[in-house]
Amino acid sequence: MHIGEGYRLLYSGGEKTGQKGVGIAISPEAYKTLTSWEAISDSLMAATFRTPFRKLHVLSAYAPTNKRATIAQKDEFYAKLESKIDALPKQDCVLLLADLNARVGPEPTRGLKGPHFMRNEAEANDNGCRVLDLMDSC
């Protein structure tokens, strides 16, 4: 889908724009290096780009929330995410761009970067534990 000035939107989601769904907006230059993209579900998609050194896989995801989602919905989302990551060649680069609705607690955690994970939470929430489990499996 064209979104102006040569930019394109790769979108995976519901039929109504603005309700459910994830996307990746890409420039005309990035579009030239796009080799494939996959709409996995309303909350997960993947795009693969050529780079001079190796393939770059960009995953766009939105995890079910802690309060509204059922355990089954969370299990399904994280199973799809882990399955997609596991299927990618280990020598390739993977970039996960996501709102995972996760809190992992106040202690620094191996592999997590940025202030969004370091809140003044006394302990991790369910999605936080799932993110840590996902990282351990990678």
Quickly count the helices: 3
Largest sheet, strands/sense/barrel = 4 strands, mixed
Order of helices and strands: EEEHEEEHEH
Task: List low-pLDDT spans.
Answer: none
The strand line-up of the biggest sheet is 4-5-6-7
Work out the radius of gyration: 16 Å
How much of the residues is beta strand, in percent?
A: 25-35%
Shape: globular
In helices, the fraction of residues equals 25-40%
Distance between the termini: 32 Å
Structural class: alpha+beta
Q: Which whole number gives the mean pLDDT?
A: 84
The count of strands amounts to 7
Characteristics of this structure?
alpha+beta; four-stranded mixed sheet; 3 helices; globular
Indicate the topology:
Layout: E1 2-4, E2 7-12, E3 22-26, H1 28-33, E4 34-41, E5 44-49, E6 56-62, H2 71-87, E7 93-99, H3 126-137
Parallel strand pairs: 6-7
Antiparallel strand pairs: 1-2, 2-3, 4-5, 5-6
Overview of the structural elements:
This protein has 138 residues and is an alpha+beta fold. The protein has a domain at 35-101. It has 3 helices and 7 strands, in the order E-E-E-H-E-E-E-H-E-H. A 4-stranded mixed beta sheet has the order 4-5-6-7. Strands 1-2-3 form a 3-stranded antiparallel beta sheet. A hairpin with a 6-residue loop joins strand 5 (44-49) and strand 6. The longest helix is centred in the middle third of the chain and has 17 residues, at 71-87. The model has no long low-confidence stretch (mean pLDDT 84).
